[in-house]
Design a protein that fits this description.
mainly alpha
């Protein structure tokens, strides 16, 4: 019974971690620093690519 409770907690934690609240808000901060949209999208692309590359070998 305790294992099912832990699994439920892990599922909820994974759901909230996988939400990217920071990405849309970060655009405004990047614009304040002088980045244009092309540079911002480039940074976001690198971020997503890094997540993809490092998630595959370490994923369960």
């Amino acid at each position: 019974m305790a294992i099912l409770n832990q699994i439920r907690k892990l599922e909820i934690m994974h759901f909230f971690i996988s939400l990217f609240f920071l990405s849309p808000v970060a655009v405004f901060f990047y614009q304040q620093k002088g980045f244009n949209y092309f540079q911002i999208l480039g940074l976001e692309s690198v971020f997503v690519l890094a997540i993809f590359l490092f998630e595959v070998p370490t994923g369960a």
